Amino acid sequence: MLKVEGIRKTYQDVVAVDNLTFNVADGEIFGLLGENGAGKTTTFRMIMGLLEADKGSILLDNKKIDYSVTDKIGFVTEERSLLTKLTVKEQILYYGALKGMNERDILKKLDYWLDRFEIKEYENKKIKELSKGNQQKIQFISAIINNPKLLILDEPFTGLDPINVKMLKDAVYDLKKKGTSIIFSSHQMEYIEEFCEKLVILVKGKSILEGYLEDIKNSYGIKKILLNVLDYDIEKLSKIKGVNSINKKNDYYEVNIDNESAIDLIFKEIKKYKVLKFDAVKKTLSDIFIEKVGGYHE
Question: I need a labelling partner for 22 at 20 to 30 A (CA). Which of 87, 114, 183, 220 fits?
Answer without folding.
Answer: 220
